[in-house]
Amino acid sequence: MIRRTQTSTDDPTPQWQTIYCSLMLLLVVFFVMLIAYSAIDTDRFLQKKTIEKAAQDVSMTAPDMNQAMQSLQQLAVTAGMSGNISVARTEDGIKAVVPNPVLFGSGDASLNESVHSILDGVIKIAQQHDLAIQVEGHTDNRPIKTAKYPSNWELSTIRAVNILRYFQDNGGMPPKRLAAVGFAAYHPVASNDTPEGRQQNRRIEIILRPGT
Question: pLDDT tens across 164-180, in order?
Answer without folding.
Answer: 999 999 988 899 999 99
